[in-house]
Amino acid sequence: MSKIANRPDWADDEEFDDPSALPPQTITTNKDGTKTIVTYTFNDAGKKVKTTRRIRTTVVRETVNPRVAERRAWAKFGLEKGHAPGPSFDTTS
User: Fold this and answer.
1) Lowest-pLDDT range, 27-31, 37-41, 78-82?
2) What is the torsion angle, in degrees rounded to the nearest 10, for the CA atoms of residue 10, residue 14, residue 16 and residue 22?
3) Cα(59)–Cα(74) distance, rounded to whole angstroms?
4) Residue 87 and residue 64: Cα distance in Å, rounded?
5) What does the DSSP assignment read for 8-64?
6) pLDDT per residue over 43-63, tens digit each?
7) Alpha-carbon gap, residue 24 to 36, rounded angstroms
8) What is the DSSP letter of 89?
9) What predicted TM-score, i.e. pTM, was given to this entire model?
């Protein structure tokens, strides 16, 4: 048998000793602003499955009445005194 000197033998590769080991999740940012997330899992039959998701992030701008925007900047009073300006989602309904 002849071997090519530059190519490593697949049997000598130590990374793939554990057949149940999965490659790490990779997140790639594309030129068009989307993200590609590649994950590996095992399905019910025990086979390794590669899942690729492309995510596009959008910014939604909302117009607010200027008087409402002014009230949001007011200093807190009462029980909320000392907290940061703006609505608190844990105390606001």
Assistant:
1) 78-82
2) -140
3) 26
4) 14
5) PPGGG-STTS-TT--PPPEEEE-TTS-EEEEEEEE-TTS-EEEEEEEE---------
6) 999 889 999 999 999 999 999
7) 14
8) T
9) 0.49
